Amino acid sequence: MSSTTLSLNLAVGGVGYFDEKNTNGPYPKPWTDNAGSEADRFWAARAQWLPTWNLDQNNGEDAALKINYVKVWKMKPDP
């Protein structure tokens, strides 16, 4: 019997997911792919992005990753 793992993730400072030319709001992405220390650069730019998370509203719940449910089906293998 084989096992399968489902990972649900919220990550920052990733590479390859956000085009270098894209912006999210008035500021460009605070790191460049393959520059090294992407997460550090993301955190250093928190004065730009952290206010958009509205942590002072609703006890920060609106900024949280929330998963209501996950539904998984077993698929039949191809004959």
TrEMBL record:
It comes from the Eukaryota. This is GH16 domain-containing protein. It comes from Pomacea canaliculata (Golden apple snail).
